[in-house]
Amino acid sequence: MEYIQAFLVGGAICALAQILLDRTKMLPGRIMVLLVCSGAVLSFLGAYDPFAEFAGAGASVPLLGFGNLLFTGVKEALQEKGVLGLFTGGFGACAAGLSAALIFGYLAGLIFKPKLKK
Q1: Which of 39, 42, 81 is nearest to 62 (CA)?
Q2: pLDDT tens per residue, range 20-37
Q3: Residue 116 main-chain phi, psi, to 5 deg
């Protein structure tokens, strides 16, 4: 049952993003920022944890989970380091994921020889 819930919730989030792409003039970058900010706002309101408990990976894999991770990192760093935590907390919390994305993206670019669209 957990897999079905994760699939349905994650699919609904992705479908909502696709609807925004198709029906509005919003660019993909703005939709991504909207999803990340929505995850951070849900975390701030205390609604992300119950949502993630229900949805499982369906909530954590899309960009909502990245917003939650950034907010959680900033919140913890703010408590530990004070105001400096506002600037360092998000980077510390998501450093492993961002590093992996950059490294694997670079390796894929080396292996598959990407070309620019014309």
Answers
A1: 39
A2: 999 999 999 999 999 999
A3: -75, 145
What's the pTM?
A: 0.79
As a dihedral over the C-alpha atoms of residue 52, residue 57, residue 62, residue 67, rounded to 10 degrees, the angle is 40
Token digits of residue 43: 């975390």
**Tokens 């369906």 sit at which residue?**
58
- Alpha carbon distance 104, 32 (integer Å): 20
Q: How would you label 56-66 residue by residue, b for 16+ Cβ within 10 Å and e otherwise? A: bbbbbbbbbbb
User: How far apart are the two ends of the chain, measured CA to CA in Å?
Assistant: 45
